[in-house]
Amino acid sequence: MVNHRLECIDAGSEYCPCYLAETDDCIICSHLQGKEFCDCNWNGVCVYQDFYWLNEKKKDIRKTIEAQIVDKKIIGSDILILKIKVTKTLARQLMQPGSYIFIRDPNQPFFFDVPMSIMRVDRQKTEIDVAIQLLGAKTKKLLDCGEKVLLKGPYWNGLLGLKHLKRLKEKNILVIARGIALAPALLVIEYLLSHKNKVTFMMDPGKMGKIFIEDYLHDLDIEVLRVNLRAEEGLAMVKNLLVYGAYSVVYSGGSDKVHSRIWNQIKDSGKDVQFVITNNGKLCCGEGVCGSCSLKLKDGSTIKMCKTQLEAETLIGGRYE
Ligand SMILES: Cc1cc2nc3c(=O)[nH]c(=O)nc-3n(C[C@H](O)[C@H](O)[C@H](O)COP(=O)(O)OP(=O)(O)OC[C@H]3O[C@@H](n4cnc5c(N)ncnc54)[C@H](O)[C@@H]3O)c2cc1C
To answer: Is residue 224 packed enough to be buried (19+ CB in 10 Å), middle (13-18) or exposed (0-12)?
Structure first.
């Protein structure tokens, strides 16, 4: 069944058409799903036409490259921050909110590839910063990286409901993030500020107990508040802001539980705001092929979280309720 709210993050990009077009599994094109009729909700360059002109072959895929680690910092017992030199093109491509890469220690095999959000891009120096919470095998092995790291990207589906962020100009936005998800929130905030929006940033240090992005906040013209999203008072703070503020969009960075708690405050506030959330899919290949991020929605359709752009509400309805 084609769900008309599905969009592919890669549609129209230099990575479209992809493997899924070759196997009749394209996320948006009905012809490339093996159907006779033309019935898509994509209004960019026709994916089928592109595929046809390429002699029914996909475009080139993202390559893994060896990149230079410019700086390495360890914060507390479990956060590693890497500053990595990238090409000018990659730096530009990774400025989009929700951008992420796969990285691994060059001495490890491909299955150590781990998705990491872009925290900050320095376009002049063509450097990116990523913050890594050391949890299990893939992340702990990144500690062994010397001067080099293997990097594959750009990928863009780190956020769901992205189109709501893209439309904003001169609006008030409530950005809420907890734990390691404070990292991707910075890229979102920089994007919002560059479009003349006003940002209130609620930060919850989470289990790490430390706001590891503090050094990155100095240059940002935003209102910053501390919150504990696991406490009733913290959630009441969120609701209060929603009731008395005039926010167009609420952004939630954190676990599915965090999204759910914030969603409940939005519903209780009675305000009509758009919801944008971090994508917590288990992403492994990033190309819609390996199946690790497959998710069954309530309508019975199965989607690939690495490529499918959904409304946050669709996911919350499909997964949490
Ligand atoms: C788009 C995206 C952006 C992310 N950005 C960051 C970031 O900026 N910083 C950061 O520290 N972490 C980030 N993560 C989470 C990070 O990828 C996982 O913590 C990491 O994969 C854990 O692997 P591990 O082997 O160290 O631990 P494991 O012990 O294997 O897992 C620890 C936790 O991570 C989850 N996890 C394991 N493998 C994956 C996977 N392939 N994709 C997603 N979750 C997984 C597990 O379910 C478990 O909850 C991001 C995840 C996604 C999907």
So the answer is: middle
* Domain contains 201: yes
Number of domains within the chain: 2
Its domain, for residue 228, covers 159-280
Of the three residues 112, 128, 155, the one that is the final residue of a domain is 155
82 near 132, Cβ under 8 Å?
A: yes
Residue 14, domain member (yes or no)? no
Mean pLDDT of the 9-36 span: 95
- The number of the ligand 1 atom at minimal distance from the alpha carbon of 155 is 1
Q: Is residue 207 in a domain? A: yes
Q: Of 155, 189, 216, which residue is a domain's last?
A: 155
| Residues in contact with ligand 1 (CB, 6 Å cut-off) | 100, 114-117, 130-133, 135-139, 158, 180, 183-184, 279, 281-284
Q: What is the CA radius of gyration of the chain?
A: 20
pLDDT at position 1 over 80: no
Regarding pTM above 0.85, the answer is yes
In a domain, 269, yes or no: yes
Q: List pLDDT tens digits, range 258-309.
A: 999 999 999 999 999 999 999 999 999 999 999 999 998 877 888 999 999 9
In tens, the pLDDT along 93-148 reads 999 999 999 999 999 999 999 999 999 999 999 999 999 999 999 999 999 999 99
Q: Phi and psi of 160, rounded to 5°? A: -115, 140
> What angle do helix axes 256-269 and 232-244 make, rounded to 10 degrees?
50
